[in-house]
Amino acid sequence: MPAEPDPDAVLMLRVKRGDRAAFAALVEKYQQPVLNFLRRSLQDEVEAEDLAQNVFVQVWKSARRYRRTARFSTWLFTIARNLCLNELRRRARHSTASLESASGESETPLPQRLEDKQTVTPPEALLREELFQKVEAALAELPESQRTAILLCREETFSYEDIAAILGCSISATKSLIHRGRETLKQKLKPYLRTGEWRPPR
User: The domain 121-202: what is its CATH number?
Assistant: First the structure.
């Protein structure tokens, strides 16, 4: 039985012909998932928003070269991941340059959302916020490929085949990345988890 056509790919083929309404429909559907992925990958709200806009700029610019060889969402998140990698490499170069030019003075760390305890928060909400912060910190410490695999795995629309295509590796390697990342997170978050099941907050 032939595979069902991807309606988003059909929209993208219309974008390829210059259809701005089709492009707007794709942006409307995917801007929040893309932003969520970039936000959790970069741990920077402003940078994630800027990069999310750039993702869709690249989609529009690349429309003429688009070919329906994979699901649209797979193609889209491949663009998002590549731009994210470029940003992480830029950060690494900047960090190295900053260390080389530093005179021994330590930088003041940016305040974390959890540190703002002036507002009265119910205990359960406070615990959930603390867990969220711990999860985000643990995710940020994972190797990029493991973190990306786990974030994509949380998106219900992505299969192992889709994730493998975005990461540019085999399905078995993808499953291994997800398994190793989950095991590392379990160990880091064991004091905060009530069960052994890994289900990070969305």
Answer: 1.10.10.10
